[in-house]
């Protein structure tokens, strides 16, 4: 886009009605906020996936469970979601295993509850703010459309005081109104794409965590026999 075109768009925005300007300001702010969360969630989910893969390799390589547990406890600030689920389950196992009054089924049930609670917190953390992206993707086009409709109404009301209406007179008002739709789509499209991608990634991580919980609970149950 050349400089002349940039200036013409800026002039259209500057000459727009107050309502259209407010709509454009709202959509611009929402778009910037959505890009902020897109980058935040991109790094967070990518980090969670890498840490999950690393811990799976360490766990299934046949390492000692006590050593893995101590490592998780000592490096809690740098552990991933799967490692925290493992830590919660093994901590409950150590706590309940020594209680002679509990049978094996009660111990396993306690282990599953501890891991499930930690799992839910981890998934909730990964899901945080995805609903914002979904809202931006679904609402922004309609907000932009509202600005466009209002701008066109404003443009046609201005024609009432003119004796003759030509394309040159009508076009600037319609063009400034259509900018609102363009900004609405600019805000919505990245938010929708990011939401779909992140929701898919979180679902895949959720499945991996749930599979690990089942397999780990079975391993601990065999140790109780």
Automatic annotation (TrEMBL):
Single Gene Ontology BP annotation: bacteriocin transport
Coiled-coil ranges (or none): none
InterPro entries: ExbB/TolQ_transport, MotA_ExbB_proton_chnl, Tol-Pal_TolQ
Gene Ontology CC terms: plasma membrane
Keyword Zinc annotated: no
Matching Pfam families: MotA_ExbB
Keyword set includes Oxidoreductase: no
Localization per Swiss-Prot or TrEMBL: Cell inner membrane; Cell membrane
Residues annotated as transmembrane: 12-39, 130-153, 173-195
Residue stretches making up the MotA/TolQ/ExbB proton channel domain: 82-210
Primary location recorded for the protein, binned into one broad class: membrane
Keywords attached to this entry: Cell cycle, Cell division, Cell inner membrane, Cell membrane, Membrane, Transmembrane, Transmembrane helix
Membrane-topology annotation of the record: Multi-pass membrane protein
Function (record text): Part of the Tol-Pal system, which plays a role in outer membrane invagination during cell division and is important for maintaining outer membrane integrity.
Subunit structure: The Tol-Pal system is composed of five core proteins: the inner membrane proteins TolA, TolQ and TolR, the periplasmic protein TolB and the outer membrane protein Pal. They form a network linking the inner and outer membranes and the peptidoglycan layer.
Family membership: Belongs to the ExbB/TolQ family.
Protein's UniProt name: Tol-Pal system protein TolQ
The organism of origin for this protein: Georgfuchsia toluolica
